Amino acid sequence: MLKKFKDLSEREILALAIASEEEDGRIYGEFANALRESYPATAQMFEGMREEEAGHRDRLIEMFRQRFGEHIPLIRRENVKGFLRRNPTWLVRPLGVNVARKQAEVMELEAERFYQKAVARSTDASTRELLNKLADEERKHTQTAGNLEDTLLTQTAKASEDASHKKLFLLQIVQPGLLGLLDGSISTLAPLFAAAVATQSSSKAFLVGLAASVGAGISMAFSESQSDDGSLTGRGSPWLRGGITGLMTTAGGLGHTLPFLINNFHMAMLVAIIVVAVELAVISYIRNRYMDTPLLQAAFQVVVGGVLVLLAGYLIGSS
User: Fold this and answer.
1) Per-chain mean pLDDT for the chain
2) What are phi and psi of 80, to 5 degrees?
3) CA-to-CA distance for 167 and 107, rounded, in angstroms?
4) pTM of structure
5) Are 18 and 57 in contact (CB under 8 A)?
6) Domains in the chain, please, with CATH?
7) How many H helices and E strands in the chain?
8) What is the three-class DSSP state of 79?
9) Residue 30, CA atoms < 13 Å, CB-side half-sphere
10) What is the mean pLDDT of residues 187-192?
11) Average pLDDT, integer, range 266-287
């Protein structure tokens, strides 16, 4: 049974504040630890916020002792209605820097609202004075967090962290997506065009292309997810990488399979070949844009591979 905030006693409200400050401090410490290697300036900012929370907790405990004695009731956010449910983002590895910053913003806003509500419903003068001091401390904490960010996240630090963020984005999103798109766009060409040339039927070619695309997507998803767990390479969650690779593999194969929904076989073949050309151009652009591969080199490598596979499918289907 969750307790309503309006039913909490002044003693319980203060105990809840102590537990909340302690929990927030530990979360900021987890953020700092998780981000220290790739985002040192942001990690230092969270370490400063952790120290602020520890100071607040110690002062709250001293205030509690003065008013209510040594025993602090065990009451936490999850025991009271109205608090936001926090997803344990601080346990995720690798931790996204933007996720951590957004979580910190939510935590600060929630703490400020908590003390404002507590002041609004208190009728005892000494309790109101105490809660107002706590609200002021939270507002100062919010200001401190902003000052820490302005002080520590200089332009140089931000540029360095942006470079780290780009590197992680390449490792965890772009590379598996590009791998899947490349595999799906090229590996399915041979079975698709072999079936199309051999049967001269759009519907049969579509079924073969669909099966090849889905099968390749499933195979690539499992292969990528089992390649490594990301702990040493920094490539992120294996399930995320596997999912991205599998979806992009399927998408790459479906791109030139969908034209065979056209009943006119020759028209379907023409549209499919045009789609293949577009796919190869897109892959070349992505390699140039994100992998720093010269455009002509990327185009040559991708086009040669695609043309060879397409010709293989055509020759096999014609034999």
Assistant:
1) 79
2) -125, 135
3) 28
4) 0.50
5) yes
6) 5-153 (1.20.1260.10), 160-318 (no CATH)
7) 11, 0
8) helix
9) 19
10) 85
11) 86
Q: For residue 259, is the peptide bond before it cis, meaning its omega torsion is within 30 degrees of 0?
A: no
Burial classification of residue 159, based on how many CB atoms lie within 10 Å of its CB (0-12 exposed, 13-18 middle, 19 or more buried): exposed
CB 152 within 8 A of CB 278: no
| CA 9 distance to own-chain centroid | 40
Cβ atoms of 116 and 49 within 8 Å: the answer is no
State how far the Cα of 37 lies from the Cα of 139, in Å rounded to an integer: 30
- Cα separation, 40 vs 42, in Å, equals 6
Residue 168 contacts residue 97 (beta carbons within 8 Å): no
Using CA atoms, how far apart are residues 46 and 90, in angstroms rounded to an integer? Answer: 12
Contacts 24+ apart (CB under 8 A), 220-226: 220/179, 220/180, 220/183, 220/184, 220/245, 220/246, 220/249, 221/245, 221/246, 221/247, 221/249, 222/246, 224/176, 224/179, 224/180
Backbone angles phi, psi at 121, to 5 degrees: -100, 0
pLDDT category of residue 296 using cuts at 50, 70 and 90: confident
Cβ-proximal residues to 222 (8 Å cutoff; 6+ apart), any chain: 242, 246
Q: Could you say which DSSP state residue 315 is in?
A: H
pLDDT confidence band for 301 (50 / 70 / 90):
confident
Contact 128, 3 (CB under 8 A): no
Are the CB atoms for 30 and 91 separated by under 8 Å? Answer: yes
Provide the CB-side half-sphere exposure for 267 (13 A, CA): 5
Burial of 32 (0-12, 13-18, 19+ CB in 10 A): buried
